[in-house]
Design a protein that fits this description.
- By secondary structure, the chain is α/β, with parallel strands linked by helices.
- It has 2 domains: about 35 residues; about 325 residues, L-arginine/glycine Amidinotransferase, Chain A, CATH 3.75.10.
- Helix content is about 30%, strand content about 25%.
- The strands form 6 sheets. A 4-stranded mixed sheet has the order 3-2-1-18.
- The longest helix has 16 residues.
- It is globular.
Length: about 375
């Protein structure tokens, strides 16, 4: 078969036989075409970029480090963990010795901690190798300093810890939190973010779509035109609102309270999600996550969202907000979406004080990229 026929054949098998993840990815690895792996594709490592006194976390450094510590411990129990930091010895002293056995420390100056948006986006190509794509990160449209974070990928590429072809795309602004892939040619994103000022404003929406279709070898892009989260600095990153999951499933934030400021926008988002179709013309299975109760600090509502979860090989780490009923509901929904994975909550009240959450501070590398 040709490349396209092979890809279609594998997708047909996935749809009709409902292959488990291991069987599907074993087949997917054998075919020869470029694809942007889904987050649930087998992973080799997770990246964190550690907070320090010269970041915006300085005023609450102990509090946020406790969150990062919990996150690092849960990740390193299950997978290799890369920690980027200007002070590796300090980080080493902050983590248990058993955690450090599965950690590689990368010494590098940083502005902040949002690895999802400054780390590599990885493609798997025809030769079963990886392309480490370095898009430009500019602080979500030049809102915040990003000069150091924007150099992390280039520094890592020179350190001989990653396998793959470095690909310079610093002519195009793209953040990992702004896109979701199903690994089979569909990308989910938001119009608000990708067409926001100070990113790629010389491009029209159609030109941005053309760039992404070519770069990621896509069949379709699903553009969400609605969706909003108070306190969000990212101009509506998709990973705060709706997430692609296995078996043509979309997990999304639902707001049932008509008095909540999010109600109208999230209702419109939900209605649009119902219109989305797979490349085969089938509707997606939609699983609603609860809307977190308002978390307010200094008069500002913080962006607490359960959509900001991290998919790992055997687990899903999801943010909790000291809201027992909502935290439990979110866990139940995620268990339905990922029935074979352990669902593990991490208290992320600290992270939302700087307008992000769990997924925002992590980035996964596909299996075969990280040199163990």
């Amino acid at each position: 078969m040709g490349l396209i026929a092979n890809a279609i054949h594998v997708e047909d098998e996935q749809k009709t036989l409902r292959l488990n993840a291991t069987e599907f990815f074993n087949i997917q690895k054998k075919i020869k075409y470029r694809f942007l792996p889904a987050e649930w594709y087998p992973q080799g490592a997770i990246q964190l970029t550690w907070p320090h006194k010269d970041t915006d976390w300085a005023y609450m450094l102990d509090e946020v480090k406790a969150c990062f510590r919990n996150l690092a411990i849960e990740i390193a129990k299950r997978q290799s963990l890369i920690i980027v930091t200007p002070k590796p010895e300090e980080v080493k002293a902050e983590l248990p010795s058993e955690t450090m056995e599965n950690v590689i420390l990368v010494e590098c100056p940083t502005n902040d901690t949002w690895a999802r948006d400054h780390a590599f986006i990885t493609m798997i190509n025809e030769d079963d190798n990886c392309e480490l794509i370095d898009f430009r990160f500019n602080g979500w449209g030049q809102k915040f300093a990003s000069n150091l974070d924007n150099q992390i990928c280039r520094r890592m590429a020179k350190m001989n810890i990653l396998k793959g072809q470095y690909k310079n795309r610093l002519d195009f602004v793209l953040e990992g939190g702004s896109i979701e892939s199903d690994g089979c040619g569909t990308l989910l994103t938001t119009t608000e973010c990708l067409t926001a000022p100070n990113r790629n404003e010389t491009f029209s929406k159609a030109e941005i779509e053309e760039q992404l279709m070519k770069e990621f070898n896509l069949k379709q892009i699903l553009w969400l035109d609605h969706g909003y989260l108070a306190g969000d600095d990212t101009d509506s990153h998709i990973d705060t609102l709706a997430r692609l999951c296995p078996m043509d499933t979309i997990v999304y934030v639902q707001c049932k309270d008509a008095t909540d400021e999010h109600y109208e926008e999230l209702k419109k988002m939900e209605e649009q999600l119902h219109t989305f179709r797979t490349p085969e013309g089938q509707p997606y299975r939609l699983l609603p996550l609860p809307m977190a109760d308002a978390v307010v600090e200094d008069g500002e509502r913080l962006p607490a969202t359960y959509a900001n979860f991290l998919i790992m090989n055997t687990a899903v780490l999801y943010p909790t907000y000291n809201q027992p009923e909502n935290d439990a509901k979110a866990k139940s929904v995620l268990q339905e979406a990922f029935p074979t994975r352990e669902i593990v909550g991490i208290n992320c009240r600290a992270l939302i004080k700087q307008h992000g959450s769990l997924h925002c501070v992590t980035m996964q590398f596909p299996d075969g990229v990280f040199k163990k």
